[in-house]
Design a protein that fits this description.
The chain is of the alpha/beta class. The chain contains eight helices and 15 strands. The chain has a ten-stranded mixed β-sheet. The chain has a three-stranded antiparallel β-sheet with strand order 10-11-12, with no helix packed on it. It has a two-stranded antiparallel ribbon with strand order 7-8. α1 packs parallel to α2 and α6 crosses α7. The longest helix is centred in the first third of the chain and has 16 residues. The termini are close together.
Amino acid sequence: MRLRPCIDIHDGKVKQIVGGSIDDKNRTALTQNFVSRKDAAFYADLYREKNLPGGHIILLNAKGTPEYEEDRKQALLALKAYPGGMMIGGGISPKTAGEFLDAGASHVIVTSYVFRDGKLDREKLSEMLSAVGKEHLVLDLSCRKKIDDAGNEHFLVVTDRWQKFTELEVTMETLTELSSSCDEFLIHAADVEGKKAGIEEPLCRVLGAFQEATGFPVTYAGGVHSLDDVRLLKRLSDGHLDFTVGSALDLFGGKLSLEELIAAANE
């Protein structure tokens, strides 16, 4: 189990937000937990000093907007500060992936590009694999919960900054099948992202069981706000599931420090 650091960028600033509050049609709906006065390079340099590789940079604005271009500039500063130490996601396509890999990203993180009309597009996934190689591709299967008519929970992948549901459910079978097409998974529990109210336990059980059975790298994000949450993640995955902490981190206005989180991961 490892702590995977994060840098979320929105409107050209490092922020922590409530994930489910992003709404392209109503920008005032956005709930911001923290807006940093420091640039993305500051955080990347700190993660490098603390020897915390494998973290992720996420560009949260819609691709093609002026705000996305500001996000991109910040991301490139962070990659320069920690070359080879961080992954990047948000608006990634085969045409843009090379720029970020050349700038120092270890992997590109992809969700929306490989989905069309709510379904996984195998052709687009193949295009991405051809462009960057399996060893540089992380599939972001961030998801939200839906309850069926029988009252059963299903965690469905969401795209476009967690605004659109797809038909793909996060299950042992899905993870096993897609693991042949990427190097890692990154999975945000979007319903609890940024709320500092605890992890999505049913989802973590699935991820933990898959990770324990296969050893395939998975990073979970969403709701971690205490050391007890980290210990629960460890129990659910027998210590294999990596995790990210955002709004609860003292760097982003929370109460948990990098040092105590690293120690909890190593207990």
